[in-house]
Amino acid sequence: MTISDRALAIAAKVETFVRETVVPYEKDPRRDHHGAPTDELVMEMREHARAAGVLTPHILGDGDHLNQRETAVVLIKSGLSPLGPLACNTMAPDEGNMYLLGKEGSPELKERFLKPMVEGHVRSAFFMTEPAEEGGAGSDPSMMKTTCHLDGNHWVVNGRKTFITGALGARVGIVMAKSEQGACMFLVDLPDPAIRIDDVPNTIDSSMPGGHATLTIDNLRIPADQMLGEAGEGFRYAQVRLSPARLSHCMRWLGACIRAHEIATDYANRREAFGKALIDHEGVGFMLAENMIDLKQAELMIDWCASVLDTGSLGTVESSMAKVAVSEALMRIADRCVQVMGGTGVTDKTIVEQVFREVRAFRIYDGPTEVHKWSLAKKIKRDWKAGRA
Q1: What predicted TM-score, i.e. pTM, was given to this entire model?
Q2: Residue-by-residue DSSP string for 197-240
């Protein structure tokens, strides 16, 4: 499946918007307690994106999505600034939540919950992960302890969730809980008095409004018609969401690392030491050359995985491979950019130090590298056994 001229044109518009309109906002002081942009700042940038025709650019006017390869070229460009995905409404968790609702939501749920998200008026949150110290679901969703049961025409949900990105300030929630039939998903309006935010810790990353909250769900009553799909199908829906969402993270942070590499390259060509430009010192020049290699390999891995998803496959194996390969490559790139820039690289004078922090967190979010490797190793063993049968 080829990348259309339409998608390339959208990507070009997004790049121009991010470089010319969004980048100047990187020094805007409107930030929350852990350094993330406030909703006021986000909505102001989105008004600019709406005017420029680049708001939610991967979802077309008729509600259809660009295919995954086309989405990649657009989301990479939106990631050229840490603020770009927020401004263009391509950020996590909203982008993944919109994808899931577009695939599995009823017409009524799409009108009520998806439409305001696509229009960029509200943020959303995905309530799946649970506190590890309480034995809840993390990388292993089968450990889920949050429960739900039917009471008349309502489902009643109780449990605890943690690392719920964007929960503080979100207006739409997708809540995952376990019933007698199996895992279920529900759409809820936020805030709700039955969902109490207990803590929003400071974290190494600071690009996502609302932080990563820990919260308690206490007898949350949800109308039965707000269940997403069918009872017991929640884990399947989670895979519909998570495989493309892992890849979308790769797309956005590749864009950020492209920009960090540009900044480090500019610094290495302008800064002189020991009688010549830094780039002419082999140790520095080789780091930038290695960046170039890793950037291209990350781009190719994203394109390959996107091609698999475009065939209609869930692509869980491929997205795990991409998540590992791309996140590790981007970590190397971000680290080299800091190293090339020396003292300046660890200051907030450029976005390089933020990109380093964000990519470090990305190696954990949506499944740590080790969990994906373990999953791949299990597949290798299964395939080996099948080959011997």
Answers
A1: 0.95
A2: EEE----S---STT-EEEEEEEEEEEEGGGB-S-TT-HHHHHHH
CB under 8 Å to 22, separation ≥6 — which residues? 45, 48, 81, 83, 84, 87
Residue 1: what pLDDT? 62
8 A C-beta contact, residue 215 and residue 200: no
Q: Are the C-beta atoms of residues 139 and 371 closer than 8 Å to each other?
A: yes
Cα 191 to Cα 175: distance, rounded to the nearest angstrom: 13
CATH superfamily of 125-231: Butyryl-CoA Dehydrogenase, subunit A, domain 2 (2.40.110.10)
CA dist 321 and 69 (Å) reads 17
Q: What is the dihedral of CA 18, 20, 26, 28, to 10 degrees?
A: -120
The full DSSP string for 167-197 is: -TT-SEEEEEEEETTEEEEEEEESS-TTEEE
pLDDT of residue 139: 80
β-sheet bridge partners, residue 186:
175, 227
pLDDT the model gives residue 137: 83
Pair of tokens at residue 368: 């740590």
Decide whether 125-231 matches 235-388 in CATH topology.
no
Q: What is the rounded CA–CA span in Å between residue 324 and residue 307?
A: 17
Residue 274 has what pLDDT? 96
Contact 104, 237 (CB under 8 A): yes
Q: Show me where the domains of the chain are located.
A: 5-91, 125-231, 235-388
Q: Please tell me the predicted confidence (pLDDT) of residue 64.
A: 83
CB atoms within 10 A of CB 94: 26
Residue 267 burial (C-beta neighbours within 10 Å; 0-12, 13-18, 19+)? buried
Q: Amino acid identity of 32?
A: D
> What's the CA gap between 290 and 296, in Å, rounded?
10
- Residues 99 and 113: their CA atoms lie apart, in Å, by 12
The alpha carbon torsion through 278, 281, 287, 290 (nearest 10 deg) reads: 120
List of the chain residues with pLDDT < 50:
none
* Range 235-388 has CATH code 1.20.140.10: yes
| Token representation of residue 2 | 């080829």
Structure-token pair, residue 179: 């019933």
Residues present in the chain in total: 389
